[in-house]
Design goal:
Layout lengths: L2 H32 L10 H5 L2 H8 L5 H12 L2 E5 L2 E4 L5 H4 L7 E2 L18 H11 L5 H6 L1 H20 L4 E2 H18 L13 H19 L1 H9 L2 H7 L1 H25 L9 H6 L13 H31 L2 H14 L9 H4 L3 H14 L5 E5 L5 E3 L2 E3 L4 E5 H4 L20 H7 L16 H18 L4 E2 L4 H4 L2 E3 L1 E3 L8 E3 L3
Parallel strand pairs: 2-8
Antiparallel strand pairs: 1-2, 3-5, 4-12, 5-8, 6-7, 9-12, 10-11
Helix pairs in contact: 8-9, 8-21, 9-15, 10-11, 10-13, 12-13, 13-15, 15-18, 15-21
GO molecular function: heme binding; iron ion binding; monooxygenase activity; oxidoreductase activity, acting on paired donors, with incorporation or reduction of molecular oxygen
Organism: Hyaloscypha variabilis (strain UAMH 11265 / GT02V1 / F) (Meliniomyces variabilis)
Pfam families: p450
């Protein structure tokens, strides 16, 4: 081959590859729009044609595809095709058709993007999930939460100390981070038997939470291009951190979880007892398990630990932040909360027990509004349609397609929540109305795949908020704008890094 032929090949080859790529993109788009089994579902043509539409909204302007999806429902109705293979639903009547106990709807391929395939959270098959979830359930049951309530009470006392220290020094306390730290300290103490003690750090865990938030975008990246995940996570940590700090952080956090799991397994193998049963010990023990239960390896356990940590931190933190901010910044609501708490707990320094706090109707309504407007997981929860397909609002969706619903859409449905963005505890006070609107209230999901940590989350919310409101009745908050309270969706919702964080000031 002479030099001329070599150089023309160097030009022709990339052009040919580009043309091939373009042609296959056009071919796929035409197929998706006109011949795909979901071609009959309404929605923007571009969203049905290519995944790049979703990618654009997940990366540009914060990760806010969930906001766009709600707007698409206003245009297209209760079913919207949001990717070539996925239909988003907005009618609350459909929620329990998908999310019921014993549901045959498995989790979609999106869950592979988390890279924690063994975890109960990411397990896609309903059959395998039933066995894994069965092993996890007893550890997070209400009974167990009541037995281990002291773990939460210790953090409520620490929070009291932190507020007192800040107020007596004339300083503001950053509750945004303090609430998240409570959540991580509780779960690491409760489930791992080894507390991270973020509340004791001078930055209240800010660096830890910045790291967790930094991991977020990689999830969308791996979802869009799954091949990247194996390459990225297989890299030596130092190289990964150099090439992509967030991927380095994923590797670092998983390595940390793995180390904890290995230490417990080693202790169990050598017959050393833990001071208190941990989730690892429970999962490694064959007692009271399904006959098909397979004892997990250390790597499997690491997936479970990582998922429980990630699932609990910002979800609980967001709910506490929204509830507390809305109460403290609204004197009328704050006055009602204080009156109810003072009547039940005349001595502000007594321990406010979870079961007594739960009986207070107004505080309970405040917590429900906090959960409603913090949205739990704001984005969609995608599920594979099982064999036989399914019909939603008269539209048939074939098996193998993905259907999804989201709290962001349901929690703002005006038929259930008039003036939806108003923080209005009163809407929960009439028991008949509360039962009606409960249908569209899904912060924890529902059914078989609903949140396993719900009893623990409620305990944290009641005890931390009840204690704070009772002991600091004159505290004031800084002012947050809607832009400070919006979420970037990385499955958990994260306030943008540039957002002003929730602080309180006051005197003691
Ligand atoms: C206010 C706090 C919380 C909210 C709003 C929340 C919300 C949710 C939601 C919506 C799901 C369903 C996710 C899906 O379908 O993919 C879920 C699942 C899950 N949550 Fe939570 N969560 C909270 C706290 C916790 C805590 C404290 C834990 C700790 C144990 C936890 C552990 C889990 C796990 C392991 C799953 C997966 C369950 C399964 O697939 O069987 N969550 N959570």
């Amino acid at each position: 081959m002479n030099q001329l032929e070599g150089s023309s090949l160097a030009v022709v080859l990339p052009v040919a590859l580009a043309l091939y790529f373009l042609a296959s993109l056009v071919y796929t788009a035409i197929y998706n729009i006109f011949f795909h089994p979901l071609a009959h579902v309404p929605g923007p043509k571009l969203a049905g044609a290519t995944y790049l539409y979703q990618t654009y909204h997940c990366f540009v302007g914060g990760s806010r595809y969930y906001v766009k999806i709600k707007k698409l429902h206003d245009i297209y109705g209760p079913l919207v095709r949001i990717t070539p293979d996925e239909v988003h639903l907005s009618d609350p009547d459909n929620y329990e058709k998908i999310n019921y106990v014993g549901s045959k709807y498995g989790k979609s391929a999106l869950y592979d993007a988390f890279g924690i395939g063994y975890s109960t959270f990411s397990t896609r098959s309903p059959e395998v999930h039933r066995i894994r979830r069965g092993a996890l359930n007893p550890f997070f049951s209400r009974k167990m939460v009541l037995e281990l309530e002291n773990i939460v009470q210790i953090r409520a006392e620490k929070l009291t100390t932190l507020v007192k220290q800040a107020f007596s020094a004339g300083k503001a306390l950053n509750l945004h981070y303090a609430f998240r730290s409570i959540s991580v300290d509780v779960i690491t103490d409760y489930a791992f038997g080894q507390c991270y003690d973020l509340l004791d750090r001078p930055d209240l865990g800010e660096t830890f939470f910045d790291m967790v938030q930094g991991i977020g975008p990689t999830m969308w990246l791996f979802m869009q291009w799954p091949g990247l995940q194996k390459i990225a996570l297989g890299m030596p940590p130092a190289i990964a951190s150099f090439m992509s700090p967030p991927v380095g952080q994923v590797i670092q956090l998983t390595a940390h979880c793995r180390k904890q799991c290995a230490a417990v397994k080693e202790a169990m193998d050598s017959g050393r007892a833990e001071t208190r049963p941990s989730i690892f010990q429970a999962l490694l023990s064959p007692q009271e398990k399904d006959v098909d239960y397979v004892i997990p390896t250390v790597d499997d356990l690491k997936d479970e630990a990582y998922s429980v940590l990630a699932a609990s931190a910002d979800t609980t933190g967001n709910a506490m932040t929204v509830a507390a901010y809305k109460v403290v910044s609204n004197p009328e609501i704050f006055a009602k909360v204080k009156k109810e708490l003072e009547a039940e707990f005349p001595d502000p320094n007594e321990r406010l027990s979870f079961v007594r706090l739960e009986t207070l109707p107004y505080l309970s309504a405040v917590i429900k509004e906090g959960l409603r407007l913090s949205f739990g997981v704001p984005g969609r929860l995608p599920r594979d349609v099982p064999e036989g397909g399914a019909t939603f609002n008269g539209v048939f969706i074939p098996a193998g397609s993905v259907v999804s619903m989201s709290s962001w859409v349901l929690h703002q449905d005006p038929e259930y929540f008039p003036d939806p963005l108003k923080f209005d505890p009163d809407r929960w006070l009439d028991p008949k109305e509360a039962r009606r609107i409960d249908k569209a209230f899904v912060p924890f999901g529902k059914g078989t795949r609903g949140c396993v940590g719900m009893p623990l989350a409620y305990c944290e919310l009641y005890v931390s908020l009840g204690t704070l409101f009772r002991r600091f009745p004159t505290m004031k908050s800084n002012v947050l704008t809607p832009a400070d309270l919006v979420y970037d969706d990385y499955f958990s919702g994260y306030h943008p890094t540039s957002a002003t964080k929730f602080h309180v000031t006051g005197s003691i």
